[in-house]
């Protein structure tokens, strides 16, 4: 429970522009009840600040924060996603409850400082043990599921725990090595664990979603059931799709279809479904996918770090609310930087500016949507906007920070997204509670 409050900053984002003398009224539950012209003294005045909706990080693997600085030398001139994955598995095998919790708290605290007030945690590292039993593969203890929820509560971030189903090491191949810590071998038991977690959530800041890991890790029949189950339960469903060319080749060899083609043919596709990456997806399939109301999460900094390739964001944005962002491997946590990468790498590729722009040609406003309300849509959460009915998920940027000097109400948003970083963020509010 927080107390009822009225917040007034020097400028407040109203969805279109920054406005002065606006007040945001928040109830004791942490929900915005009204945004209106100032009347009377606020209970919290944020002088020299501009208020924006908190950013939504729609795709994270918090524990991968432990890989930062590792695996960045390539003595043989070779280094790709698959060699990075081997380093990730070594980390996976080294973690216990204490180190897992420490890494997750660290990642979530850093997200808050970077402007992310909500995280979609795509959680597949379930077990603190390997779960082997007399040589036969058994699931581990699911101890890390609660560790992630505890870490989010300790840091103060809103979390949608996207509980991941992970059954095969590659199509038709059993789990091996570190992958055994991801094991969910039986769908009914997996759903029972989901129900157990539902009973442990913090009501105001924690929700669940389903996350079949990928077509390489989830057999067809299980995948169909998982998406159906998400629809039946009213949960969002997220899945990694077409990040790597090899992943597409293996799927075509096994099923005759690419992963996205398979999804379009075999499961209900719509606003409940979010594909992550879609780096090598064809424009035609992407167009069909977003036309259904479904979402795409792009992770520009991680995709750049891993050398994945460049997804066709211009086609994804044929529906302006289709694209959201994720910090994925958490190699770098900074919301403005994540967003400017979304645009800048495509400027470099296409030798033109303004790839991610709204119907008025405004890039900063389109990027803000990708970083806020589009992510909220993909997670099915009422955040990402400063308006009645949404949770008060807010960030306050320092209008007088050195990197923003000279900006006015009209130029502040692009100045912040292109010229500043999370360090210009001074206050962060999650569900009415001021974290910093
Ligand atoms: Zn991922």
Short description:
The chain is α/β, with parallel strands linked by helices. 34% of the residues lie in helices and 21% in strands.
Explained architecture:
The chain is an alpha/beta fold. It contains 14 helices and 16 strands. Strands 1, 2, 3, 4, 5, 14, 15 and 16 form an 8-stranded mixed beta sheet that branches. It has a 4-stranded parallel beta sheet with strand order 6-7-8-9, sandwiched between helices. A hairpin with a 2-residue loop joins β15 and β16. The mean pLDDT is 95.
**Terminus-to-terminus distance:** 17 Å
Average pLDDT over all residues: 95
In CATH, what is the class of the largest domain?
Alpha Beta
Question: Structurally, how many domains make up the residues?
Answer: 2
Per CATH, the superfamily of the largest domain is Metal-dependent hydrolases
Structural class estimated from helices and strands: alpha/beta
- How many beta-strand elements? 16
Classify the helix fraction into a percent range.
25-40%
SSE pattern: EEEEEEHHEHEHEHEHHEHEHHEHHHEHEE
Compute the number of helices.
14
């Amino acid at each position: 429970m927080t107390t009822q409050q009225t917040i007034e900053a020097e400028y407040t984002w109203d969805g279109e522009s920054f406005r002065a003398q606006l007040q945001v009224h928040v109830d004791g539950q942490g929900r915005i009840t009204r945004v209106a012209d100032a009347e009377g003294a606020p209970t919290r005045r944020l002088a020299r600040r501009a208020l924006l909706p908190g950013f939504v990080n729609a795709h994270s693997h918090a524990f991968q924060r432990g890989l930062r600085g590792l695996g960045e030398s390539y003595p043989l001139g070779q280094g790709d996603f698959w060699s990075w994955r081997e380093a990730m598995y070594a980390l996976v095998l080294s973690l216990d409850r204490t180190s897992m919790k420490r890494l997750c708290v660290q990642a979530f605290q850093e997200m808050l400082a970077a402007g992310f007030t909500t995280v979609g945690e795509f959680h597949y590292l379930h077990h603190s043990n390997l779960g082997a039993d007399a040589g036969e593969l058994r699931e581990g203890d699911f101890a890390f599921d609660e560790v992630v929820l505890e870490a989010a509560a300790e840091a103060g971030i809103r979390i949608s725990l996207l509980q991941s189903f992970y059954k095969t090491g590659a199509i038709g191949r059993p789990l091996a090595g570190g992958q055994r810590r991801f094991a969910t071998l039986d769908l009914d038991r997996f759903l029972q664990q989901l129900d157990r977690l539902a009973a442990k959530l913090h009501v105001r800041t924690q929700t669940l979603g389903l996350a079949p890991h990928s077509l390489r890790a989830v057999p067809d029949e299980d995948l169909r059931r998982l998406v159906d189950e998400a629809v039946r339960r009213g949960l969002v469903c997220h899945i990694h799709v077409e990040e790597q060319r090899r992943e597409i080749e293996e799927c075509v060899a096994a099923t005759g279809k690419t992963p996205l083609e398979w999804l379009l043919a075999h499961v209900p596709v719509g606003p409940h479904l979010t594909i992550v990456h879609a780096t090598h997806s064809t424009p035609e399939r992407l167009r069909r996918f977003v036309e259904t109301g479904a979402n795409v999460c792009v992770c520009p900094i991680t995709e750049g770090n891993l050398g994945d390739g460049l997804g066709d964001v211009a086609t994804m944005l044929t529906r302006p609310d289709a694209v959201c962002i994720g910090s994925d491997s958490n190699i770098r946590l900074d919301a403005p930087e994540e967003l400017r990468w979304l645009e800048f790498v495509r400027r470099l590729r296409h030798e033109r500016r303004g790839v991610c722009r709204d119907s008025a040609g405004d890039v900063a406003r389109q990027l803000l949507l990708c970083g806020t309300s589009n992510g909220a849509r993909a997670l099915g959460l009422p955040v990402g906007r400063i308006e009645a009915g949404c949770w008060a998920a807010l960030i306050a940027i320092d209008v007088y920070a050195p990197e923003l000097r000279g900006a006015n109400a009209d130029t502040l948003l692009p100045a912040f997204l292109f010229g500043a970083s999370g360090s210009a963020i001074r206050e962060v509010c999650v569900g009415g509670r001021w974290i910093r």
